[in-house]
Amino acid sequence: MAILFTKNYGSILKDFIRDDHDHSFSISSLSVQLYTTPTLAHHLIAKHDALFVVMNTFVSECNRRCNSEGRLEFDRNHVSMAFKRAQFVLYDVKYLLGSLPTTFDDDLRKGFLHGLSLML
């Protein structure tokens, strides 16, 4: 289930961002249970590129809010609920990175660096 959730993470979160239901009623709320399990989180980062998938979802939502100079731009008189909902992705990053692995094998290192590359 965690692998399937991760493979579809982008579309799940994009649906949540455009929806009007509370986070607790969304399937996206399963991420806390999947991504806070240390062995599962490490496996998903190493074998299924979970950190990249999650970070890419956030970056793509941020890109929608960029001006011509590439900077985030918001309307001062309008609260963007869609962007506030997109910030739930940052919790998922926190969940994935919340537990230190006892050993860093090559796959885990590559998965971590690939996800981090989006922020550089």
From TrEMBL:
<protein>
    <recommendedName>
        <fullName>E3 ubiquitin-protein ligase</fullName>
        <ecNumber>2.3.2.27</ecNumber>
    </recommendedName>
</protein>
<dbReference type="InterPro" id="IPR039164">
    <property type="entry name" value="UBR1-like"/>
</dbReference>
<keyword id="KW-0808">Transferase</keyword>
<keyword id="KW-0479">Metal-binding</keyword>
<comment type="pathway">
    <text>Protein modification; protein ubiquitination.</text>
</comment>
<dbReference type="GO" id="GO:0016567">
    <property type="term" value="P:protein ubiquitination"/>
</dbReference>
<dbReference type="GO" id="GO:0071596">
    <property type="term" value="P:ubiquitin-dependent protein catabolic process via the N-end rule pathway"/>
</dbReference>
<comment type="function">
    <text>Ubiquitin ligase protein which is a component of the N-end rule pathway. Recognizes and binds to proteins bearing specific N-terminal residues that are destabilizing according to the N-end rule, leading to their ubiquitination and subsequent degradation.</text>
</comment>
<dbReference type="GO" id="GO:0008270">
    <property type="term" value="F:zinc ion binding"/>
</dbReference>
<dbReference type="GO" id="GO:0005737">
    <property type="term" value="C:cytoplasm"/>
</dbReference>
<keyword id="KW-0862">Zinc</keyword>
<dbReference type="GO" id="GO:0000151">
    <property type="term" value="C:ubiquitin ligase complex"/>
</dbReference>
<dbReference type="GO" id="GO:0061630">
    <property type="term" value="F:ubiquitin protein ligase activity"/>
</dbReference>
<comment type="similarity">
    <text>Belongs to the E3 ubiquitin-protein ligase UBR1-like family.</text>
</comment>
<keyword id="KW-0833">Ubl conjugation pathway</keyword>
<keyword id="KW-0863">Zinc-finger</keyword>
